[in-house]
Amino acid sequence: MSPFFLLSLLFGLAFGQSASLCAPSEYIIHVEKRECAYCLAINTTICAGFCMTRDSNGKKLLLRSALSQNVCTYKEILYQTALIPGCPLHTIPYYSYPVAVSCKCGKCNTDYSDCVHEKVRTNYCTKPQKLCNM
């Protein structure tokens, strides 16, 4: 193995996270309740982007600490609440949603993130839409 290749490999392992492109990104959530007349389109931010990961194919050659499967996840979150218009009096017309303030590359925490990206349904409205800019 050439010294240049070995040095490049060590540099990449040490400083790979700095090349990650994980940041808050604009996203629209569509929210509706069966009892309410409207669907609410909420502009918010989510964490999205690329995080450096290391291929586990070389796991026998590398230390366990050198292997990582990081995802773009929340560093700081705040919650906001929106009022869904057109709801009858007996219905709670509020919806709380997360807003990504800052993001990081790290292990996925199932307490507040969906770590398996399986699309259950599309993000759309079936009722007339109202836009909410928070």
Written description of the protein model:
This protein has 134 residues and is mainly beta. It has one domain: Cystine-knot cytokines (Cystine Knot Cytokines, subunit B, Ribbon), CATH 2.10.90.10. It has one helix and five strands. The strands form two sheets. Strands 1-2-5 form a three-stranded mixed β-sheet, with no helix packed on it. A two-stranded antiparallel ribbon has the order 3-4. The radius of gyration is 21 Å and the shape is elongated. The termini are far apart. 9% of the residues are buried.
CA-CA gap between termini:
55 Å
Summarize the helix and strand pattern as letters.
HEEEEE
Helix/strand class: mainly beta
The number of distinct helices, counting runs of at least 4 residues, comes to 1
**Main sheet: strands, sense, barrel:** 3 strands, mixed
Q: Reading side by side through the largest sheet, how are the strands ordered?
A: 1-2-5
Question: What does the radius of gyration come to?
Answer: 21 Å
CATH superfamily: Cystine-knot cytokines
Q: Give the second-level CATH assignment, the architecture.
A: Ribbon
- Low-confidence stretches are none
CATH topology: Cystine Knot Cytokines, subunit B
Please specify the SSE layout and strand pairing.
Blueprint: H1 3-15, E1 21-32, E2 39-50, E3 71-83, E4 94-106, E5 129-133
Parallel strand pairs: 2-5
Antiparallel strand pairs: 1-2, 3-4
